[in-house]
Specification:
- It comes from Adineta steineri.
- The protein is mainly alpha-helical.
- It folds into two domains: 58 residues, no CATH class; 154 residues, Four Helix Bundle (Hemerythrin (Met), subunit A) (Up-down Bundle).
- Helices cover 68% and strands 4% of the residues.
- The protein contains seven helices and two strands.
- A two-stranded parallel ribbon has the order 1-2.
- Helix 3 runs antiparallel to helix 4, helix 4 packs antiparallel against helix 5 and helix 5 packs antiparallel against helix 6.
- The longest helix has 34 residues.
């Protein structure tokens, strides 16, 4: 099989990571700096065959699958960083203006951020896990749980991006924030429980690449 691969948009970001990975694996990598429109691939957590316009040679290497999962991993990684900064900024404002909100309200905001950051971190690492999974009924359940948690996190994040240090704004959406962070917490619990059950009951089957690595360590 030919070991020549063309990688577009390789000057930075995901394209650069792909080019470096393939070069490390012994492929002859040709690159250009044409950026693909990645925004279209942020709409779904589930990988779809031929979802990305890449050369046939790259598809035979499973590159489209790799790009999809790397893209989603980076998205959540970046969101985690931004939401961590937002929490620190919000927390400083709460301390500075603590007379405007009750102690209970401040604890509610802190709890919402705590759960959001925990769920975002979990989501980040679901994509390396999903990348190595072989598709079956249980992987479909995992991806549905992943999608549910992802959507719940985005809704909670939208609430917390508002000026919730304002008493008027916070009081308007307090109930929604509480309901949403409780839902996020429930969804992450369902996802992790299913993953644990998968290990206990041997649900998970892996792509050949990780099978080889596991066998070499045994």
């Amino acid at each position: 099989m030919s070991r020549n691969v063309l990688v577009t948009g390789a000057a930075r970001g995901i394209g650069q990571a792909i080019a470096l990975r393939l070069a490390k694996d012994g492929f002859n990598v040709a690159v250009n700096d044409i950026e693909n429109d990645w925004s279209k691939h942020k709409e779904c957590n589930r990988f779809v065959e031929n979802n990305i316009n890449i050369t046939d040679a790259a598809n035979t290497l499973g590159l489209s699958r790799y790009i999809h999962h790397l893209d989603r991993y980076r998205n959540h990684e970046n969101s985690l960083k931004l939401e961590t900064k937002l929490f620190k900024k919000t927390h400083r404002k709460l301390l500075k203006n603590k007379d405007k909100l009750s102690k209970n309200d401040i604890q509610t905001i802190e709890k919402a951020f705590e759960i959001l950051l925990k769920c975002r971190q979990i989501l980040t690492y679901t994509y390396p896990f999903a990348y190595y999974l072989t598709k079956n009924n249980q992987s479909d359940v995992f991806e549905q749980n992943q999608a549910d948690l992802e959507q719940a996190c985005e809704h909670l994040s939208e609430f917390l991006e508002k000026d919730i240090t304002s008493e008027t704004i916070f009081n308007d959406i307090k109930r929604k924030i509480v309901e949403q962070y409780q839902y996020c917490d429930a969804r992450q619990s369902v996802l992790l429980k299913h993953v644990k059950e998968g290990y206990t009951n041997d649900y998970w089957q892996y792509q050949d690449e990780i099978k080889t690595n596991i066998n070499n360590k045994i």
